[in-house]
Amino acid sequence: MRYLLLCGVLLLSGCSHMANDSWSGQDKAQHFIASALLSVAGNEYAQHQGIGRDRSAAIGVMFSLGLGASKELWDSRSEGSGWSWKDFAWDLAGATTGYTVWQLAQH
C-alpha cells in the first residue's frame, strides 16, 4: 500500500498544469454521479467474484478513485483542461456515497 501511495504522489507531482475551475457546475455533478456508480459497480463485481464484503467495498472505492485520478491525469496534459482538485474532491464524494448506498443495500 505504501508503494502505491508513493507512486500516486510521484505521478501527481508531474501535472503540467492545473485547472482554474469552480466548485459547482455540470461537470461536478457528472464527476459525483459517475464516481458513485463506478464505486457501486466495483463493489458488486468484487462481491460476485467471491471476495468478502469489506474487501469488495475497498475494491469498489479504489476502482472509482483510480479512474477519477486517471481522468485528472489525462486532463493535466498541456492540451487538456488541467488537473482539478475540485473535480477529484467530487470524485471522492461520489465514491464514498456509492460505497455507503451499496453497504446500506446489503442489509
Mean pLDDT: 86
Main sheet makeup:
none
Structural class: mainly alpha
The helicity comes to: over 70%
Rg computed from alpha carbons, rounded to a whole number of angstroms: 15 Å
Distance between the termini: 29 Å
Number of domains: 1
- General shape: globular
Low-confidence stretches: none
Beta strand %: under 5%
How many β-strand runs?
Answer: 0
H/E topology pattern: HHHH
Total helical segments: 4
Folded structure, characterized:
With 107 residues, this protein is an all-alpha fold. The protein has one domain (24-105). It has helices at 2-12, 26-48, 53-75, 85-105. Helix 2 crosses helix 4 (85-105) and helix 3 runs antiparallel to helix 4. The longest helix has 23 residues, at 26-48. The radius of gyration is 15 Å and the shape is globular. The mean pLDDT is 86.
What keywords describe this structure?
single chain; globular; 107 residues; 0% strand; mainly alpha
Give a quick precis of the structure.
The chain is built from four helices and no strands. With 107 residues, the protein is mostly helical. It has one domain.
